[in-house]
Amino acid sequence: MRRRYVTGVTSRNSSSAWSSIAWSQAGVVSQGRVPTLHREAGFEFFFRAADAPESPHVHVEGNDGRAKIWLRPTLEVAGERGYDRRQMNVILRITRERRDEWLAAWDRFFDPDR
């Protein structure tokens, strides 16, 4: 996958139906369809444009695993593969610390007129 870095946000896909202006208005500056929200401890936290019909959540990949974490109504693991308990504790700690920031990014991205 090709990655493009734009002011600290990464895109997994350089082709996009979203213009850079639309992304900027959504508060997510990226030219792809999968904004990376955060990287820490070898984990990458992101959401996908196709996630709109679902409740707010983040996907996590890295360190030989993947997970999906619901952000609303409560923080909850939707599923994971390849992570041990220690890794999940790190993922949940990071998600707890950044939950409000990521919920705001979700809302700006999926409902920019809100």
Large-scale geometry: globular
Task: Give the tally of structural domains.
Answer: 1
Mean pLDDT: 78
What structural category characterises the helix and strand content? alpha+beta
Helix content estimate: 25-40%
Sequence stretches where pLDDT stays below 50 over 5 or more residues: 1-32
Task: Tell me the fraction of residues in β-strands, as a range.
Answer: 25-35%
The major pleated sheet works out as: 5 strands, antiparallel
Count helical runs.
2
Helix and strand pattern: EEHEEEEEH
Instruction: Going across the biggest sheet, name each strand in turn.
Output: 3-4-5-6-7
**How many β-strands, per DSSP?**
7
| Gyration radius over CA | 14 Å
CA(first)-CA(last) distance: 32 Å
What features would you highlight for this structure?
alpha+beta; two-stranded antiparallel sheet; 2 helices; disordered N terminus; 114 residues
What this model shows, in words?
The protein is 28% helix and 29% strand. It is an alpha+beta fold. The strands form two sheets. Strands 3-4-5-6-7 form a five-stranded antiparallel beta sheet, with helices on one face. Strands 1-2 form a two-stranded antiparallel sheet. The radius of gyration is 14 Å and the shape is globular.
Briefly summarize what is shown.
The chain is built from two helices and seven strands.
Helix/strand layout:
Layout: E1 4-6, E2 9-11, H1 20-25, E3 36-40, E4 43-46, E5 57-62, E6 65-70, E7 76-81, H2 85-110
